[in-house]
Amino acid sequence: MSYTITSQCIGCNHCLPVCSTGAIQYDGTHHWIDPNRCNNCADSYSVAQCAATCPTNYGCVPGTTSVVTHRALFHSDEYWRKWFATYERLVCHLHDPNHSPYWQNWFDRYSERLSTLLSHHSGTRNANLHLSR
């Protein structure tokens, strides 16, 4: 089974140059993988390079690649089983207390920097108001 580009794709194009078979296509609005060309990078790597370079981690995944097959699956129980399995996995990941603290640390640093900038801006504004009186 070849890989597929999901709705998690952010269009960064990191996958385009690393695809050894040129299976990744861009139609002007969306990226997609030609299932007839994708070989899961089996000829060169132990990991599919599109998935390895994807910054979202879920933009390129093993699965159904054909739009026609995807539409047919939309009305099948298998489609929804996979959809809810993915949903459950993502929700569990969000609530996992052992997950990487990367985003919490990022948020803390961002909030601290934003507070500093806002207080500096507010202080500058108050000083300017005081000077204009």
Automatic annotation (TrEMBL):
PROSITE patterns: 4FE4S_FER_2 (PS51379). It comes from the Bacteria. Pfam families: Fer4_7. SUPFAM superfamilies: 4Fe-4S ferredoxins. It comes from Leptolyngbya boryana (Plectonema boryanum). The gene is fdxN. Residues 1-29 form the 4Fe-4S ferredoxin-type domain. This is [4Fe-4S] ferredoxin. The lineage of its organism: Bacteria, Bacillati, Cyanobacteriota, Cyanophyceae, Leptolyngbyales.
